[in-house]
Design goal:
Strand order of the largest sheet: 2-1-7-8-9-12-13
Radius of gyration: 20 Å
Helix content: 40-55%
Structural class: alpha/beta
Strand content: 15-25%
Mean pLDDT: 89
Distance between the termini: 53 Å
Oligomer: single chain
CATH class of the largest domain: Alpha Beta
Shape: globular
Order of helices and strands: EHEHEEEEEHEHEEEEHEHHHHHHHHHH
Low-confidence stretches: 65-79
Number of helices: 15
CATH superfamily of the largest domain: NAD(P)-binding Rossmann-like Domain
Amino acid sequence: MQEHIIFGAGLIGGFLYGVLASQGKSAAMVARPNIRDKLSGGMKLSGYQGHQVEVKSPQFVEMASSKSGVSEPHHLTNKSESCDFLWLTVKCTGIVRALSELADLVDDNTVILCCQNGLGSDAPLREAFPHNRILRVMVGFNVSDLSEGRLHRGSEGQLIIESGIDEVDRLIKAANSPLLPMCGTDNIQATLWAKLQLNLANPVNALADIPVKEMLSQREFRRCFALLMAELLAVVSAKNISLPKVTTLPASALPKFLSIPNWLFRIVGNQMLAIDPTVRASMWWDLHTGRRTEIDYLNGAVVSEAKTLGIETPANRRIVELIHAVERGVGKTGICGAELYRELSHA
């Protein structure tokens, strides 16, 4: 029995596994064959502040293909491979499809940790595993794939876990490190809304088709981000949610700050620009690999919540439409900041 199983060892999942394994913890990954091939020769993890670790022999959970074909779920060759902590790092769009596989990894005492962006991805898990403790996790940093087996944390931010359970509190204390800062919170819902405010930039980056640092250096893209944020802030205000501070500035100050001229942003926005020049949003990766994006759980969640409150969110509604158009093959990326701002401000 493993202490930790990471289900969905992509960028975030692979990085999480690598840190836990480098700390000597009992851990293994469930990964797609192409990811397994990339990582099986060894892993090197690094951070934007210079921290590094290496895992020479990554461990994987052995799965066997269903007899009905490769499109069916894969199941364990040994069903005794349950775990204490199951870290679910697949995207929101993959949760329902993964449920039958997850059943093989979960016993009565397994704690399931949901590491998805946006809102609502934990609902199918609560229905499928009503007797397990299911905790939400906010991943506050970006990980990029630099080469075979090399994963790089390219920005600041913590792994924030819904706390209140002794086992999780002990885990946080034991696993917290400079390469993977980790803490707990007793108000995960507000924390996820605060992260969602930042994730509203994901579709902007995907449509811009440039690295995040380059996007942030251009005022028109930042003004797009500010429009989307302002609508979210109206929603959380109506819901009486007080957003925790997950950036240097308070959440309410970010839209105005992002709209300042470029020359001033270069002076006072140094910390926001303290990211590697290669970093791109996860939604950019999804569009460029032909995968369905998480837009409905991000900007789409803002639109849905606003509708129940009678609040208009035209900018978020329009950017959801633009991403879905690209997914269908009828939209475009590489949109300049001025054009995207016109699309969102006149929606």
